[in-house]
Design goal:
Blueprint: E1 14-15, H1 21-29, H2 36-48, E2 53-54, E3 56-57, E4 74-75, H3 77-96, H4 100-106, E5 110-114, H5 118-130, E6 142-146, E7 149-151, H6 166-172, H7 175-184, E8 192-194, H8 196-225, H9 237-258, H10 262-283, H11 285-291, H12 293-313, H13 319-328, H14 360-369
Parallel strand pairs: 5-6, 7-8
Antiparallel strand pairs: 1-2, 3-4
Length: 373
């Protein structure tokens, strides 16, 4: 027998968002540099008219409402979730003896999520913070809201097993390959897709063919012709120009990262990787080693400076291969500043950063995804 729906009168607590329209509008307009989806969606909520939101539910699970007369009611999960940022931060501060309010209000805060969660971070959370009239708490600084990612042209669904499981992919592929593809082809500004063909081509073309190739051929050349020691060289104008360009990447890439423009930051670094490969090809050390050793030395010295600093610049994106590079150059740790590899440094064990992935793997992964392997 089907149950008949029953309407009942009940009392709920509401967040009076409509009373905060002016403050919310000023807040959103002051952050026009957010990703377009966050800024435009938040403006649309303001433009179409805000509505007060119920903060309580008639449920038998959840967090109890700590107010007389509301027995049996629970706090709406999305109010509880975003306030979890504060409660977690407050708990951590107490454990470490840090003043919570000072820490919260002085820190630069990043909120990373999908586009369907934008209003909870740009409307609901600021409204909840405004509702605290006894204390002033700062609003979110950076909203890093992504578009959607599909898999081979279809919506990802764990229930239909149309998904890639993290443990599985890490067991078969270099973690830096996964990180590179998801950043370089990620849904920062538009919906994107994860095709296995593009993932493997990206690994072989960019990581192995561009970055890995530059590092490997430079180190192997020193290993073969200079007794595994970084040669000393006198830079000419061309060498200095590329090193100056490299140095300028620190502030530029750093600013892009701080603004949440990860794809542009990574693309900028890999554009320089291609410049470095062009430099190596034009300098032709395999020829100058036979007729102009001094020129060859300064070319390889320049390449060592490039490789060392690329390990710094790529650390936020490709930490595992960056660690390998630092180990080969005997660099203790990454630092966000231009560094110099001393002439005469004996290299550590030279190893390949990235192995080529056989293109047969594409079909294998497509079959595995469809449950045919």
């Amino acid at each position: 027998m089907r149950e008949v729906s029953e309407f009942r009168l009940t009392n709920h607590l509401y967040l009076a968002i409509t009373r905060m329209k002016e403050e919310l509008e000023r807040y959103i307009e002051s952050h026009s540099y957010w990703r377009k989806n966050a800024y435009e969606m938040s403006k649309r909520y303001i433009r179409e008219g805000l509505r007060d939101r119920s903060l309580t539910r008639d449920l038998d699970w959840g967090i109890d409402v700590p107010k007389d007369g509301f027995d049996g009611k629970k706090i709406y999960i999305w109010a509880e979730n975003v306030l979890g940022y504060l409660s977690d931060c407050c708990t951590l501060c107490r454990r470490q003896g840090i003043d919570f309010h000072e820490s919260w209000n002085s820190s630069r805060q990043y909120y990373v999520h999908g586009k369907d969660n934008i209003p909870f971070h740009t409307i609901i959370l600021p409204s909840l913070l405004l509702g605290r009239t006894d204390v002033k708490l700062k609003f979110p600084d950076e909203i890093i809201s992504s578009e959607y990612l599909t898999l081979e042209g279809r919506k990802i669904s764990t229930s239909e097993n149309w998904a890639i499981w993290v443990e599985d992919i890490l067991g078969r592929y270099n973690p830096d390959s996964i990180r590179y593809f998801l950043i370089a082809n990620g849904p920062e500004k538009r919906d994107t897709d994860f095709p296995w063909r593009e993932f493997i081509n990206s690994h072989n073309g960019e990581l192995l063919g561009a970055y890995g190739n530059f590092v490997n051929r430079s180190l192997v050349f020193i290993q073969k012709y200079f007794e595994n020691k970084v040669p000393k060289g006198q830079y000419d104008r061309k060498d200095q120009d590329i090193l100056d360009l490299l140095k300028n990447h620190y502030p530029h890439v750093g600013e892009l990262i701080e603004k949440g423009n990860f794809k542009e930051a990574l693309d900028t670094i890999f554009a320089f990787v291609r410049t470095a490969n062009k430099y190596f090809d034009e300098e032709q050390p395999w020829i100058t080693i036979k007729g102009d050793v001094e020129k060859c030395k300064k070319t390889l010295n320049t390449c060592m400076q490039i490789i060392a600093n690329l390990s710094n610049l790529l650390e936020p994106f490709l930490p595992f291969s960056s660690a390998k590079t630092r180990n080969m150059l005997k660099i203790e740790k990454a630092a966000w500043q231009c560094m110099e590899v001393p002439a005469g440094l004996e290299l550590g064990q030279v190893e390949i950063l990235f192995e080529r992935i056989d293109k047969k793997a594409i079909q294998g992964e497509e079959l595995r995804l469809r449950g045919l392997r």
